[in-house]
Amino acid sequence: MKLSGRDKTMFQTVFTPSADEARTLLDYVRYLWDERIGEQLAEHPLYRPSALWKHWAGQTFTGFSLERILLQGGHAFPSSVEVGLGETGEEGASRWRRCLGALLGGRGTDPIRQGRDPEQLQKRFRRFYPQVAVCSEHERWYAWHPNPYFRCLEAYVLREKKPLPEHMLEIGAGACVNVAFYRSLNPAMRTTVIDLPETIIFGYCFLKSVFPDIRILLPHEIGQDQAGSHADVQFLLPTQVDLVPDRSMDFCFNMSSFQEMTIETVNHYLRFMSRTLTPGGTVLSVNLESSRYLEGNALKNYDFALYHATPRRQPAPFGTDLVGHIQGLNIVHAEVSQQSLNGGPE
User: Fold this and answer.
1) Which domain holds residue 91?
2) Is the dihedral of CA 172, 177, 178, 184 positive or negative?
3) Helices in the chain by DSSP H: which ranges?
4) Is 147 within a domain?
5) Other CB atoms within 10 A of residue 93 CB
6) What's phi and psi for 4, nearest 5 deg?
7) Average pLDDT of 19-25?
8) Does residue 95 sit in the same domain as residue 134?
């Protein structure tokens, strides 16, 4: 038995599907079990999830009724506390006190609760970017997931190259707030998302809520009559990355999930994104400068060699402020364009 004190800020969603959408998702879940996707991922030599992600994903659930789908994410946030019956010593006692304090409504929960309040987040964002407002195209939905929305908005504001992508690749898109962000600004954009099987359902439901007519391809539909080239968004599992063509993307993005992988997996993904980028295309990483979870995972160890350029690095002050109650955590915006060996676009 374990007692958890958690106050999650996102990935809690209720979605009302059409009959076809419900069948599509149920077919996808059946595919995950029939093809033993969990075992395939766990054994993958390049992209198997870290033990941390396996733990969080295992606490992610989707529930169906005759009218709605309930999505509950297992992702934990920096103030999360989990203790087990085997805890001993002062460290164990301290964890129990923190956990009970959170369960009883202690002050430690306030920053996380504020982290999902749209008005509070907008006020905090304006402290750093007083000249920036929520994009008019996003007014209808930004408050559904305000925490990732304002972090995506900061990433957009800090971009050195701001042309809207035509073809975007995102690793670990979560609820797909960033996908919705860019698609609202460029409805013609095509997106490929690489994510873990449990999380893909969240992205599907959120995108269908924002864009009811969006054409989405799920991993189990790859290779069927519905061609991926006709989809607005296609979701792929890490075991399917070889299906992404070379030089097919002009923008690659990752926010807050590289920091939760082993550094070896991060670098495999960076090499994969380099393969997919068009000449002059951009990779943007918005992650902790040093992971608080995994030893060796730090921006200084990211392998950008294939880009033949040094990333432009700058602080992400709003994102850092959200985790500011934990000393030493800094979010860094790192942006690099694909160059040739002679320093120009390939």
Assistant:
1) 2-110
2) positive
3) 19-34, 37-42, 51-57, 89-103, 110-114, 118-128, 146-158, 177-185, 197-210, 263-276, 317-322
4) yes
5) 12
6) -115, 135
7) 95
8) no
Of the residues 52, 85, 110, which one is the last residue of a structural domain?
Answer: 110
Provide CB contacts within 8 A for 42, sequence distance 6+: 48, 49, 54
CB neighbours of residue 64 within 10 Å: 13
Half-sphere exposure of 255 (CA within 13 A, CB side): 21
Terminal alpha carbon distance of the chain: 55
Of the candidates 77, 110, 143, which is a domain's last residue?
110
Angle between helices 197-210 and 19-34 (to 10 degrees): 170
Same-domain pairing of 66 and 134: no
Q: Is the pLDDT of residue 202 over 70?
A: yes
- Phi and psi (nearest 5°) for 333? -95, 110
Q: Which two tokens stand for residue 312?
A: 């432009």
Contact by Cβ (8 Å): 200, 193: yes
Model pLDDT for residues 264-289, shown as the tens digit of each residue: 999 999 999 999 999 999 999 999 99
